[in-house]
Amino acid sequence: MFKTSYTIFWLTVMLSPFSAQAVLLDRIVAVVNDDVITLSELESLENAMLKTASPLSSEDRGLSKQETVLKNLIDKKIQLQKAKELGIETSKATIEKTIEGMMEKNNISEETLREKVTAEGFTWRDYKREIGEQLTLTSLVNQEVRSRIVLLPEDLERYYRENQEQFVLEKKKHVRRIFLSLPESATAGDADALRSKAEVLRTDLLAGADFKELAIRSSDGPEAKEGGDLGYFAEGELMTELDRAVSAMKAGDISPVIEHKGGFTLLKVEEIKETETVPFDEAKEKIQETIYQEKLGARYEAWIKELREKAFVEIKL
User: Fold this and answer.
1) CB distance 102 to 14 below 8 Å
2) What are the structural domains, with CATH classification, of the chain?
3) Mind listing the pLDDT tens digit for each residue in 123-135?
4) Strand pairing of 168-169 and 35-38?
5) Model-level pTM greater than 0.85?
């Protein structure tokens, strides 16, 4: 995703209509080449952005909300003008198909969507025009930015060498648990009885009882039906009392009875995965996506900056 608030906002929040209705004698707040931005258009988008709480890019921090919205609108106008210059447009059929797809994905009917659009103060025509513009902008960015990004094999290999820490898997232990829950209203006698039960279970385990079977029969934990399987944990990922016990355990060990808030626990370490480095071939896909996103953001920023510099913009706000 691009690193500008404009892109984040316009390309991710497609179910809300953002274009403004024409208002007679509306005030012009900016001129962008041969197009204008009106006060009603600015206020409409500002209200929509307040509802979505869209994040700001680093270059927008320090600007007021209205200044940010105006900047986004200017960028949009510039890009739509560029699309027109290049002959990029979206057909009515594509707009209809896109809206149908969004309704299906969000499991809503056209009637419901129309009601939502109307409730926001817009017409169905406004909404369809906005969808068309967003599709046009996507096609423009695909042609002018995405299609020009090239990833070379040496780029991936260099990233792998220079960021080895990202591909190191920490030592992890496969842990199972038997948890005996102590009610908040329990008395000291109740706690002693439960502790004794836990000690009996531990004695059975040390004598060779199957941990998974005992967990299924005796544990109160949500993972009981899976034989008490908690999964794999690196040091520091479990609650303090359990982490302290596990850190000293080897594969096959059974922990002492661990008392903690809420009850008593027995742990078993099934196996230990030692620290290892993910091979390049396994990390390649993740590296490719990471580099692609970095190049995409940088190229988009350079491209939109060039469009801004070539455009005539006069702000009257």
Assistant:
1) yes
2) 5-151+285-315 (1.10.4030.10), 171-274 (3.10.50.40)
3) 899 899 999 999 9
4) unpaired
5) no
Segment 164-204, tens digit of pLDDT? 999 999 999 999 999 999 998 999 999 999 999 999 999 99
Which amino acid appears at position 66 of this protein?
Q
pLDDT (tens digit, 9 = 90+) per residue, 23-69? 445 789 899 998 999 888 888 777 766 655 555 555 566 678 888 88
Task: Tokens 């934990």: give the residue.
Answer: 221
